[in-house]
Amino acid sequence: MRFPPLHAALDALAMWSEDRRPRAAQPWRPGSTAPLSCFGPLPALPEAPPARGRWSCPSPRPRASDDRLSVRVTPARGRRRGTLVLVPPWKIARPGLVAGWARLFARLGWEVWLASPPHHLERAGAGRSGEGFVSLDLPALRATVEQQVLELRLLAALAARRGPVGLVGLSLGALGAALAATGPEAVELAALVAPPS
């Protein structure tokens, strides 16, 4: 069933509420026009996540010494088709907001790895989930995107040990998923679900 008017209204409401949140002024810093540096060789791969629950390992490009890549695993139901790495939208406040997506893919036979993007969920630190991901400081924004792409590539490489791999990116998560899908890892499918313009 499709609800385009409802989805468009929800997107408009989310943007309206974000525009009204008071924020400190940010200086703009120009960034490099060089290609992203997140497509080189991956570090040694850690052990894969368990069949269910939360898992983490050191980020391949941490922004702080305690910054860890983190996923939540939902097991496949029925005949297993492979692993889908689900990349949530910007400023997701809790994993339950995308639980419907995880359940849908699990019912279709996919093991789902919900990746916590940098600056989100348990990686938000003292701030609000998602704050700090997008910035007018373009070198900082570039570093965050590169970190996310490296992490998604590492997850794709780990998942490939178990069979076919897919990437599903929601909203701003579609940017990271699209970039990771262009990496050298074997990705069977990429679904990019972005809000309408």
In short:
The protein is α/β, with parallel strands linked by helices and 197 residues long. Helices cover 29% and strands 18% of the residues. The radius of gyration is 17 Å and the shape is globular.
Overall 3D geometry? globular
What is the number of helices?
Answer: 4
Task: Assign the structural class, choosing from mainly alpha, mainly beta, alpha/beta, alpha+beta, or little secondary structure.
Answer: alpha/beta
Strand order of the largest sheet: 1-2-4-3-5-6
- Please outline the major beta sheet: 6 strands, mixed
Helix content: 25-40%
Run of helices and strands:
HEEEHEHEHE
Distance between the termini: 21 Å
Number of DSSP strands? Answer: 6
Overall pLDDT confidence: 90
Instruction: Report Rg.
Output: 17 Å
Low-confidence sequence ranges = none
| Strand fraction | 15-25%
What does this structure look like?
There is one protein chain. With 197 residues, the protein is α/β, with parallel strands linked by helices. Helix content is 29%, strand content 18%. It has helices at 4-19, 99-107, 138-160, 173-181; strands at residues 53-58, 68-74, 82-87, 110-115, 165-170, 189-193. A six-stranded mixed β-sheet has the order 1-2-4-3-5-6, with helices on both faces. Helix 3 packs across helix 4 (173-181). It starts with a helix and ends with a strand. The mean pLDDT is 90.
